[in-house]
Design a protein that fits this description.
By secondary structure, this protein is of the alpha/beta class. The protein contains four helices and nine strands; from the N terminus they run E-E-E-E-E-H-E-H-E-H-E-E-H. A five-stranded mixed sheet has the order 7-6-5-8-9.
Length: about 170
């Protein structure tokens, strides 16, 4: 269980992020067209998982925009935004913002939050996802993680991008 905060107040997650060097677990997340996306859809690509509570909050929206801006320049890399938001809300946000270098997927009916250790177990955001970043190489092995200690803060974009860039 990760000990994090929301505006200084302690909250916890169901577990820990996947360990560096391990292979991430398969998942079934849903895109804005209600299509199921799985780990196998990203075979042979580096993936930056930008995990957050809700696209309808300022910091989550900022992280989606920031990764979209930087993702276009990365070779053989996909940025996947993951939240509990409904696929329709995620699609609406991406269309309105012109986000075309990221995929935004919903965990509204899967075990992703528990399998990746990011489900918040208490506090006002109980049941939502914590703010975290997981980067995997072309073989789905974890090469970088960040569990953001304060939900109201942005992740370390540069560290995640550097990990994806340096992975071979």
């Amino acid at each position: 269980m990760a000990n994090i905060t929301l505006k200084g107040q302690p909250v916890h997650t169901v577990g820990e992020l996947p360990l560096v060097g391990t292979t991430v677990r398969d998942f079934e997340l849903v895109n804005e067209n209600l299509e199921v996306k799985r780990l196998s859809d990203y075979k042979g690509k580096k993936v930056i998982y930008n995990i957050f509570p809700s696209i309808d909050t300022g910091i989550c929206a900022a992280s989606a925009r920031a990764f979209n801006e930087k993702a276009g320049a990365l070779e053989n890399t996909v940025v996947v935004n993951v939240s509990k938001d409904l696929p329709f809300a995620l699609g609406r946000f991406c269309a309105a913002e012109g986000l075309d270098h990221v995929e935004t997927l919903s965990d509204f009916r899967s075990n992703f939050a528990d399998d990746y250790g990011v489900r918040i177990t208490d506090g006002p955001m109980e049941g939502l996802l914590s703010r975290a970043v997981v980067v995997t190489d072309e073989n789905a092995q974890v090469i970088y993680t960040e569990q953001v200690g304060e939900i109201a803060q942005e992740p370390n974009y540069q560290a995640a991008l550097d990990a994806a860039t340096s992975a071979s």
